[in-house]
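In response to a reviewer's request, we include the raw inputs and outputs for one of the modeled complexes. The four entities were modeled together in a single run.
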Amino acid sequence: MVVIKKTPTIQDVARHASVSAATVSRVLSSPERVSETTRERVHAAVRDTGYTMNQAARSLRLKAARTILLAAPNIGNPFYSTIVDAVIREAAVRGYSVLVASRIGDDPNRWLRDYLLSNRADGLLLFDGSLDTGALHGLWDDGVSLPLVAAYDEIPDPQINSVITDNRLAASRAIRYLRELGHSKIGHIIGPSRNQSTNERLVGFREGMHEAGLQVRPEWLFQGSYNMESGIAAAEWFLAADELPTAVFCGNDEMAIGLIHRLRREKIDCPLDISVIGFDDIAVARYFDPPLTTMRQPREDIGKMATRSLIDIIEGTVPENEPIHVVLTSDLVVRESTRRIG
Amino acid sequence: MVVIKKTPTIQDVARHASVSAATVSRVLSSPERVSETTRERVHAAVRDTGYTMNQAARSLRLKAARTILLAAPNIGNPFYSTIVDAVIREAAVRGYSVLVASRIGDDPNRWLRDYLLSNRADGLLLFDGSLDTGALHGLWDDGVSLPLVAAYDEIPDPQINSVITDNRLAASRAIRYLRELGHSKIGHIIGPSRNQSTNERLVGFREGMHEAGLQVRPEWLFQGSYNMESGIAAAEWFLAADELPTAVFCGNDEMAIGLIHRLRREKIDCPLDISVIGFDDIAVARYFDPPLTTMRQPREDIGKMATRSLIDIIEGTVPENEPIHVVLTSDLVVRESTRRIG
DNA sequence: GAAACTCTTGTAATCGATTGCATTGATCTT
DNA sequence: AAGATCAATGCAATCGATTACAAGAGTTTC
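The model returned the following structure tokens for the whole complex.
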């Protein structure tokens, strides 16, 4: 049978080094307050015993978990997963762990309580604008100061820190590009309306159309849900119209992929018969056939900046009364799914 | 200025309900030991105060964090992200949180210590067979019993619990299928060799070839790294050979996508000129052009089963001396990237 | 009616790390 | 040389929840 040695505590290390637990603690957190000789003895004892700090005890005492909570609507989505990866890496650099909550839509109040208020996490990185902000405000009103950064998807509240991209500008940029290629019959696949990013992109689309002096035709507008299936549904919606648009601006790459896939079944070729421009530049976009023209979202940067901001707020190295608002730029990546008309 | 109310403790609830903290604790964990009237009073007090248990204190006392650590080589990869999603959902059902560590390759010893031994997590879900098992054994030998489940990628140690798929069988199955379509010139893109799954698939490939009475030709074997870029590299490797294979079995879908993409640039069409079969069935596989024939991995099930097993082990509801070994079945999904020869 | 039992609740110790305050001994100042 | 100053370390309280044990009240039994 395996002998289970208890994991050593700070007391064990103290005994081993013939000092008090207080001294061991000091060696670990403020070494300059301890003499060189004891410091070395303690370090040796730490090595010998294989000591690791008990985080639960530390969290209890310091009221800080050195952990952030990342909440996203669906981690399974490749768009989010890249961000998550960036968040985890950046958090690790600052010595923080990351708890991940997915599919948070169900009962936001519950997990907010469960995680944040129970000292499991020191702050919240929210990647879901569709969350009912009432819950957040409820906490706020109760006087709980909740370190929170809304990332990627804006929450329409200037008090809430945010790291987002220039969705509106990017959308109108996409339309201008299509216009430059000679397109005038332009459709748009919208994302789910609960997302603020969706609405921003829609506004940008309308602005772009207006600037170009083009009409927005309702039969060329389709509301999807940011997945490939809804790209298919959009294709079928467009096919049912009297006339097809010659170009479609899609709210994200996955819907673009679904759209192209479905249209191809009807022998409608992209980019020959229809130009398609996506949004995000997910990994597969450049290897798809045709390689997708898309508005690239700096996903790594979103994750990194958001994490950095949140930890700054948690650690109080940033003034509390001035909300942080970072807007990152999306770049147009021209590939082969768009083409000059004619 | 916002008044910061301290988050209520169990003491506050006790005072509010005019009982002792012990009673409140009992109401929350073993309600049947408390009389109905006090139970109601306490519940009311919990509601009134908005009490949430301090997890740090609870973890410290119970030496259990109700948290599992999920470690994967790269969360950004869409293959893993689906699994992660399933893990988080299943863990939530059992009342567990999930800490996620990505890019763990760098210093396994460090994060093992940091997370597991420091009472931050009660068990480890390891999605990376490339991890040096020495580190794990080191802990084991030190007498620390570490609830561990290796998922998806096997660790070659019968003592370690695992939830994997039938990689070898699936690979030989893929070859048999290609053989049925009349192919005899079959290549293979291997994954990174540190992964056990890769090796199993390679063995299955060899077995399948042997059963079919076919030679494995080294110029039709390429070692990639499970990403699209290495699919491209593989294409270039094959193009450099005297002759192209008529079918390629890819270690995963992403390499298949890269391969098809690159070959198309050379006017080599899939499936007309070459059949390609992938592995995993990632989300984009069915919408790719051509839709990918692939060996589907039951990713949701992997995540679910692994999580379930790990929590069973943590909670001791499963005999300790009998390692768990679950092998899930991969299914052949026939789409359009493969084709009868001739 | 007293002993034995059950049911409910409270008291106090405990988990492990941190830190304000106290103590000791050494060095410095005038 | 006596007092002041400083560096290094220990003591003990603390964070909040859990639980073994004790105690009190009410019930049952012979």
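As requested, we also summarize the result in words. The first strand of chain A starts at residue 67 and ends at 71. Residues 19-23, 26, 33-35, 38, 57, 59-63, 119 of chain A lie near DNA strand D (CB under 10 Å from a C1').
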